[in-house]
Every structure is written in structure tokens, then in C-alpha cells.
UniProtKB/TrEMBL annotation, chain B:
GO CC annotations on file: plasma membrane
Keyword Ribosomal protein found: no
Protein name, as recorded: Phosphotransferase system iic component protein
Species: Liquorilactobacillus mali
Organism classification: Bacteria, Bacillati, Bacillota, Bacilli, Lactobacillales
Keywords: Cell membrane, Membrane, Phosphotransferase system, Sugar transport, Transferase, Transmembrane, Transmembrane helix, Transport
């Protein structure tokens, strides 16, 4: 399965990157391909490309604040959680993403 | 009602606005702090030849901090309505400023401006030939005039009364009530390690700072600074007591937790606290309580001019810098000692169990599928 997404938090220096790391670790552990773009105070890093979004099975947004470029995901299955959920329960979250994708197919 | 609150997303919009506000307050806060430290005073206008370098600094910073209601209103309106929200947000923020509704007025005005812009975008239908007028005339004009007038004639006055009352109340706090207020703030700022309670307390303290009351936000942030360092100190104290309180993994984590604390990033302590949430919260809460109480009572509610920065906040506290340092030290010491004492000694077997510990279940409320 291919997961892409965005993480962004209020202050934009800590939760953003913790969430990115937790989701990436949890997804890799179950053999998923994963890429999380971070929108911190420093700006956008690890930017998702058009192809990556096109190929993704599901989009995960771990965000507490308004993000830029949400329209890129038009037509895709998008799941939104707070960064806190992603940091506290990344494995459960990834499991949930799998469930959602399977239900779709 | 619950559904409505979730849809309205009050907190999300406010947090978005705060995320734009913080760099502005930090930048301007340090500029004004340097200016004021060398005797500069913030002026309403700088007349060529009539001011010195430090007055220039104080004025640059002071003017910016005076714009905070405008910035928060613009941020909220932008978060609600996107780009079309910026113009009415800006206008309503200035309206809040002129009717002395302050930061609270800016927050309320931001929601109003954002929702009006959103509603105009959604419900005002124009013929095709007028499509070009929508973004250039119709949305900005309608949203600006409506939200501006609502601010000036309806909510401005009661909010300005409330702001004046709250400001006077907090400025008038004496020794004991300052001590209690500080202690409560210290606890609130740390019980969830950068989570929703912390952010709510932060929004409140930031509101007060925009009104010129610097103590609360300083109390809050110095706790955020001290707590991760306190967990580091707990390691050393436990060693002295011949106790082993951290796993290998946690000791590795501590190496980044402590420096993160120095620059005010409390979230660094999350991986540590997660493994023993009750004891972690007790240690951090007690530390925060002492810090807040010391700071608010000894500095008489005064604080740093910046709302972020860890140890870098101390120089902006003027003559109270030593109170800040004392407060941080007390917090580090209390958190460190308490955690080292109450944390159970762990053996290698425990370490394994700890690693396999179940994650918290995600509640469906937390997930939004679109």
C-alpha cells in the first residue's frame, strides 16, 4: 500500500516532525510505502510530487492547523487526524488506514 | 451542539492564527526588548533627527506588538475562508484596535470576518459577466463593511469593557493571588506536554501578553523549558540513589530531550513521559507549580516581552531576569527529584515489557474521513 500525507502543528517545530516520523516508522513496519510532507514554521519540506499523490492509495493528514495545498488531494481518499493521535497511536492509525482502503475496494 | 462545535472548529482556526502570530511576536518582542534594555521607549511616530537607535528599535517592536489584534484576526479569517478572508480579517482587526477591543476583539472579529467572507463566497450568486467582480469587489466589500460595522457598533464596546476589566484585575493581583495564579498556570501549561490544555492556556496567556501583561506567558513557557531538563536531571539524581529509572532507549532520547528543553520545546519530553504517564505528569506538574508560583509572586506578574525562546526569554525580562532563572532552576530541581524518587526501579525484563506495551486505542471522534 502507498500512503502519502502531510503533518503540521501549531508552533511548527516539534509535533510536525514527531508525527511525520511516527507515521513513517509505523507504515514501514507493515511494509507500506510512505512519504509525509511537513509544513512547519520553516516552510514546506519533503514536498509531495504530483505522481506520488496520484499513485497513493490513501492520504493521511496529521494536522492541527490549516495547511496549504489541500486541493492537491481532490478526488483521493483523505483521512484527517490531529498530530497528537498520530504521535500517540501510529500503529493503530496505519491499521485503520488499511481498513479504510480495504473497505473501498 | 457537539456536531456544530466540531464543524465550526473554533480551536483549529485559532491555532492556525497563532502559528502565524508566534514568529511575528518573537521577532518584534526581541527587537523591543533590546531597544528598551538600552533606554529606548516606543514612540507613536519617529521624527527624523529626534530619536536615537534604541528608540528606533523600541518603536519598531512596539508598533508591531500593537498590531497583534490585526494579525490574529487576519489569521483566523484566513483559516476559515482562505485567501478571501485576509482582507476582511485585516479590516476587522484594525476596527477592533480603534475601539479598544484589543486582542479578544481581534479573535472574535476574525471569526466574524472569516464566516462572512465564507458565506458571501458560498451564497452570493452573480451572473457570469460579473464573475470578475466577485474577488475584487463583492466579497471584500461586503465582508469588510459587515464585519467592521459589527465590530464597531455591536461587539466592540462590551469586549473593550471586558478586556479593561480583565486587565485591571490581573494587574491588581497582589502577592498571594499572584502566587496561586502562577501555580495554576504552571500546572496547566505542563499537564499534557504541549497538548490541547497547554495550547489553550497558551492562547489565554498570549491574549494577556497582547494586552501588556507579560507574566502569565512567561510562567507558562519557562515551565515548558524546564520540564525536559528536569527529566534529564532525574537521570543523574536516580544514579546517585543507585536507581535505574530509564531504559536504554529513553536515555538515548534524553540526549535530544534536554537540548530541546533549553530552546523551549517541551514536546521533547513526550517520548519519556509516554512510558509512565501518571508519574511523569505528577513530577512535571509539581515542578510547573513551583515555577509558576515563584515567577508570578517574585516578579509581581511582570515577565518577558517575548512569548517563546526558553533561556533566551530571560534577557528580555529586564531587572527580573534572576527571578526567571530561579523559577527555571526550581522547576528543574523539583521535577528531577520527584521523578527520580517516585519512578520505579526498572530491570531488563521490564524494559522488554515496556517496549511491547499496547498503544492507546484511537477513538472514532479523532478521525475524519473525507
Amino acid at each position: 500500500m502507498k500512503i502519502v500525507g502531510i503533518s503540521a502543528c501549531t508552533v511548527g517545530i516539534a509535533h510536525t516532525y514527531l508525527a511525520q516520523q511516527k507515521i513513517e516508522d509505523a507504515a514501514k513496519k507493515v511494509g507500506d510505502e510512505v512519504k509525509i510532507e511537513t509544513q512547519g514554521t520553516i516552510g514546506t519540506e519533503n514536498k509531495l510530487t504530483k505522481e506520488e499523490i496520484q499513485e497513493a492509495d490513501i492520504i493521511i493528514l496529521a494536522v492541527d492547523v490549516k495547511i496549504s495545498g489541500e486541493e492537491r488531494f481532490k478526488g483521493k481518499k483523505v483521512v484527517k487526524v490531529s498530530t497528537e493521535t498520530a504521535i500517540k497511536s501510529p500503529n493503530k492509525l496505519v491499521e485503520k488506514l488499511h481498513e479504510i482502503v480495504e473497505k473501498e475496494n | 451542539m457537539k456536531e456544530f462545535l466540531k464543524k465550526a472548529n473554533f480551536k483549529g482556526h485559532l491555532l492556525t492564527a497563532i502559528s502565524y502570530l508566534i514568529p511575528i511576536v518573537c521577532g518584534a518582542g526581541f527587537v523591543i526588548a533590546i531597544g528598551m534594555a538600552f533606554g529606548g521607549k516606543s514612540q507613536t511616530t519617529l521624527i527624523i533627527g529626534k530619536f536615537d537607535f534604541f528608540q528606533a528599535l523600541a518603536t519598531i517592536g512596539g508598533q508591531t506588538l500593537g498590531m497583534l489584534p490585526v494579525i490574529i484576526a487576519t489569521g483566523i479569517a484566513f483559516s476559515i475562508a482562505g485567501k478571501p478572508g485576509i482582507a476582511p480579517g485585516f479590516v476587522v482587526g484594525l476596527a477592533a484596535n480603534s475601539i479598544s477591543a484589543g486582542f479578544i476583539g481581534g479573535i472574535i472579529g476574525g471569526y466574524i470576518a472569516g464566516w462572512i467572507a465564507f458565506a458571501v463566497l458560498k451564497y452570493v450568486k452573480v451572473p457570469d459577466w460579473a464573475k470578475g467582480l466577485m474577488p475584487t469587489l463583492i466579497v471584500p466589500f461586503l465582508a469588510c463593511i459587515a464585519s467592521g460595522l459589527i465590530m464597531v457598533y455591536i461587539i466592540g464596546t462590551p469586549v473593550s469593557w471586558f478586556t479593561a476589566w480583565l486587565t485591571a484585575l490581573l494587574k491588581g493581583l497582589n502577592g498571594t493571588s499572584n502566587l496561586i495564579f502562577g501555580a495554576v498556570l504552571g500546572i496547566l501549561s505542563i499537564v499534557d506536554f504541549g497538548g490541547p490544555i497547554n495550547k489553550t492556556a497558551f492562547a489565554f496567556a498570549l491574549t494577556l501578553q497582547a494586552q501588556g501583561i507579560n507574566g502569565p506567558v512567561t510562567a507558562l513557557q519557562l515551565t515548558n523549558t524546564a520540564t525536559p531538563i528536569g527529566f534529564g536531571l532525574a537521570f543523574l539524581i536516580a544514579r546517585m540513589l543507585h536507581k535505574n529509572i530509564y531504559t536504554h532507549e529513553e536515555i538515548e532520547t534524553l540526549k535530544s530531550t534536554v537540548p530541546m528543553g533549553v530552546v523551549n520545546i517541551v514536546e521533547g519530553s513526550i517520548p519519556i513521559v509516554m512510558n509512565d504517564i501518571v508519574r511523569g505528569v505528577v513530577a512535571a506538574g509539581l515542578g510547573g507549580m513551583c515555577e509558576g508560583a515563584i515567577l508570578m509572586s517574585l516578579a509581581h506578574g511582570e515577565g518577558a516581552t517575548v512569548p517563546f525562546g526558553g533561556f533566551l526569554m530571560l534577557p528580555t525580562m529586564g531587572k527580573n531576569w534572576w527571578v526567571g532563572l530561579l523559577a527555571i532552576s526550581a522547576n528543574v530541581l523539583v521535577t528531577g527529584v520527584v521523578y527520580a524518587l517516585i519512578k520505579k526501579n526498572i530491570s531488563i525484563d521490564d524494559e522488554k515489557i515496556n517496549r511491547q506495551k499496547e498503544e492507546e486505542d484511537i477513538s472514532l471522534d479523532d478521525i475524519q474521513v473525507m
